Amino acid sequence: MSEYLEEIWNDILSQRPARVRRRFSMLDKDSQQQVLIHLNRMVTEDGWQEVQVTSARAALSALENPETGKDG
């Protein structure tokens, strides 16, 4: 299970919009909501490394703007 979760977060935090959206779309609605909550915490709460904050912002942007970054 932990490998599966690591794979999910690697995709979500990949800074590759199409990869982020593809993985997110594979999740059920409850999991999607939890991912969004966690990403928002990453960008608003202290204690995260800058690269994590940057990746979380990129993921949120990819999910909010589905027409940007068609990177495959």
What topology emerges from the helices and strands here?
Layout: H1 2-12, H2 17-25, H3 29-44, H4 50-64
Supply database-style keywords.
4 helices, 72 residues, mainly alpha
For the largest beta-sheet, the strand count, sense and barrel status come to: none
The tally of helices reads 4
Q: Structural class, judged by helices and strands?
A: mainly alpha
Query: Segments where pLDDT lies below 50 for 5+ residues?
Result: none
Q: Estimate the global geometry from the Cα principal axes.
A: globular
Percentage of residues in DSSP E strands: under 5%
SSE string, helix = H, strand = E? Answer: HHHH
Mean pLDDT: 93
Model description:
The protein has 72 residues and is an all-alpha fold. It is globular, with a radius of gyration of 12 Å.
Give a short summary of the structure.
Helices cover 71% and strands 0% of the residues. The longest helix has 16 residues.
